Amino acid sequence: MAKNIYGGGSQTNANGLKFEQETDLRDALLKIPGYAVQGNTLYFNGNFIGTIACKHDLYRVLLEPNGVNHKEVISKKLLPDEAIYLESTKTVFIIEKKFQNVAGSVDEKLQTCGFKKRQYSKLFSPLGIRVEYLYIFNDWFSHPQYKDVLDFILENNCYYFFNEIPLNFLGLPHMN
To answer: In this model, does residue 15 exceed pLDDT 70?
Structure first.
C-alpha cells in the first residue's frame, strides 16, 4: 500500500482536495482559500493558473481550440471524470473517481489506466502537454484484495489516492 506522504488528515483543506462521491473538482477547489473558478478557468489569488474540465469539456475547452481533433488521433473518445491542466507545468492531470461499497465491475476498469494514459498522451503530445493519470478512491479500495491492482496502477506510471488528492502532487499553489 502506498504511504500518503503528501499530507491530509486534520490538514485536508490546507493540503489536499477532499473528495466524496458527489464532489467535483470545482467544488473541492473552491473550498480552499485563494481559489476561484470562472467557467473552466482556474485562478489562485486572482492569477490564472489553469483549466478544469470534465467529460466532453476536455475536448471542447482544451483540445479543439488548439487544433486537436480526437478522431484523427485516437479511435474512441475517452471521457474523464475530471481533468485539470496547469499552465506552469504544461501538465494535464486526468482524474478518475471510483467509489463503491461492494465488489463489482469497477474492479476490472482499474486495470485500464496504462492504456488510457497512453491514449490521452497521444491527444496532448502535439501541444507539448504532459499527461498524468490518477485515481481517487474511497476506502473500499484499501482492502487487501486490491493490492495487486494498486501495484499494477503504479507499475503503469499512474497514481492513486484515497479520498483526497494532495495539492503538492498536482503542483497547485496553496496558502502557507
So the answer is: no
Cell 495539492 locates to 167
**Concatenated DSSP letters of 31-53:** TSTTEEEETTEEEETTEEEEEEE
Cα 166 to Cα 13: distance, rounded to the nearest angstrom: 10
Residue 4 belongs to a domain: no
In whole angstroms, give the CA distance from residue 89 to residue 87: 6
Considering the chain, what is the average pLDDT of its residues?
Answer: 86
Closest among 62, 138, 50, 155 to 97, alpha carbons compared: 138
Assigned domain for 2 exists: no
- Which residue range forms the structural domain that includes residue 44? 9-170
Domain-embedded: residue 57: yes
Please write the tens of the pLDDT for every residue from 84-111: 999 999 999 999 998 877 766 677 788 9
pLDDT in tens, 38-69: 999 999 999 999 999 999 999 999 999 999 99
Measured CA to CA, the distance from residue 79 to residue 55 in angstroms comes to: 4
Task: List the one residue out of 73, 158, 56 whose CA is nearest residue 124.
Answer: 73
Phi–psi pair at 10, nearest 5 degrees: -70, -15
For residue 23, the one-letter residue type is T
Residue 109 has what DSSP assignment? H
Number of domains within the chain: 1
